[in-house]
Prior knowledge:
With 728 residues, the protein is α/β, with parallel strands linked by helices. 44% of the residues lie in helices and 10% in strands. The protein is built from 27 helices and 16 strands. Strands 2-3-4-1-5 form a five-stranded parallel beta sheet. Helix 22 crosses helix 25 (548-568). The protein starts with a helix and ends in a 5-residue tail after the last strand.
Amino acid sequence: MNEQEWRFLIAGSSGDVEVPANPTKWIDDLTWIQMYREVYGMAQLDAFKGFETYFFASVEKFKSIYDSNKAHEEPLPEKWNNLNSFQKMLVLKAIRPDMIIPAIQNWITEEMGKEFIDPPPFKLASCFKDSSIMTPLIFVLSAGSDPVADFQRFAEEMGMSKRMDSISLGQGQGDKAKRLIEDASQRGGWVLLQNCHLSISWMPELERITEEFNDSMHPEFRMWLTSMPSPHFPTSVLQNGIKMTIEPPKGLRSNMLRSYNNMDNKELNDCSKPDSFKKMLFGFCFFHAIVQDRRKFGPIGWNIPYEFTNEDLAVSKRQLKLFLDEYDYVPYKVLNFIVGEINYGGRVTDDKDVRLIRTILRTYIRQEILEDNHKFSSSGMYYSLKAGEQEDYLEYIRGLPLNPAPEAFGLHENAQITTAQSETEDLLLTILTIQPRSTSGGGKTREEVISEMAAGIEAKTPAPFDIEEAGKAYPTQYSESMNTVLIQEIIRYNKLLILMKDTLKDVQLALVGRIVMSEELEKLANYLYDNLVPTMWSEVGFLSMKPLSSWVKDLNDRIHFLQEWYENGTPKIYWISGFFFPQAFITGTLQNYARKHVVAIDRLSFKFNILDDLAVDEIHEKPADGCYVYGMFMEGARWDTKIHAIADSNPKELYTELPVIHMEPVPDRVAPETGIYDCPVYKVLSRLGTLSTTGHSTNFVMYMEIPSQEEQDVWIKAGVAIFLALKY
């Protein structure tokens, strides 16, 4: 395998690239930027000489690959189809990165055989045969999995159910666990220690106990452990033990089948209103499957991937029966509150996710569900069944698709592409982080590559601002809060610029042996080589998900924005993506209005006027009040300039740039209840953030009212959000 090609696959293109104008009508401008960067980087490899020129001149010949549902199986045009399977993957990564995983599976099958991509079926008995009294059996837990039921069933089969003890580890449980192990090792029992990751302080003791296992113990003794992946789990225990993992059922159909296989007709008819009970229970089971399976879509599914369990559904089922038996009518409002706010909602911590789970539950727990064939989604494939017996439900569920389309969840079809791209990025990043830190074969050495990159970034890094001079030019003024915003931004960026200058200089000296290569500098060198933003920079820098090459360009653009402001005065229109802390800018805008019109700032809120008839370069004057902003991107939907409202995304158009927006402060404004979507605005695509010391989220910025002809619920379920920065 060619080392340069391998490195390009996992690390991507590095360095700054001037992207030419998009020559196509079928690739959106944002996708074109990323695609061309990959094509340009690929053209630097020996096997791809001339590819960039060919691609630009014959881009229409690649349209069939871009449009195909099986892009990884499409032939490349002309001579480029003579590339080997691995080299073709590099082209695919540029044009359709969402299809890389199927392409890798095909490549592994071609090179090594199909058995290397098919996971073996899990058999607890086989794992048990490989164990001994000195090798613990370890269940590695994953979100939503619970192996205890399988373990208890196996213990029953082996006649060990009465000679088995279990304990859930936690504070103060260590001594009890130790006694259970000693007792079981003497009398030949099994002991199950659950949730080892919750008892970090006791893990060294577990390691010591395991090391003292010997042949004198009872031959039927076995120690079973369950733990989430944890850096504190004893390495020696992990190395010596039998590792197992049981994945929870994945997919809508598998989840629904499990729910109904665990019931019988007696349970389905055990209610004073059996027809209503069956209808509503079907809604709860569908809701349970939807909220679990949405996790696979990443941030557009849930901001935080919650671990809903079967017990949540079981409790909801018991409450449903209770309320139907007690009430003369179906209490939809009560059921929505108890299930959405307590049973499931009690696990939900993000306020945007709270809004989402309420909305999803309302789709199923409503009066219309009692009507036969009431549709749950636009396709009509998912609907409320006529009340029947267990087998009727199982027959319907077996007929559902194995891989449901995003519309089943209320998401746009593009969500499937976003998910596949994220899985590709995660896979390649994982491979990248475990690569050996040395190079072999021809070409530049690893140290030469790092030194060149460090020197290149150092040359591009702007000089820090003169804070004293900036303070004189933009002093604190009662009438202009933006002066304070500018100085605060300069201080934040200066901290990053100074750190970058110092560390880039030091790493170059360390590479040639002029100073000691410290642990911090070695980490910095590794990050530079991997085209990742060094942790020491990201900790003091702005929130970003970009690779290093794009991050450096973004940093320079941000500094240029502030430099223009510093040299030419307050901008007529603000690039909101350029702010380190956009919340301060938003507050400053409200303060300016409050002080100008002598209005309490607490009485103010924004009216968002979307100026889709104006381009950024057509703004020549500041607004009388508020400010003009640009540089926002929407995911999950788009702005339609024809209807002047939010609309469904175009196929394969994952993100769209919003027009210029006038953020206008209005006193005592009553927010409209209809005709708008309260769209969350985030800094980056991960959506997840934490509360900082200022009381603001590190990611969430604000809600923005976007005109809509649809109900809010449509866009909430679609995960529609606005971002100040993308991944490239």
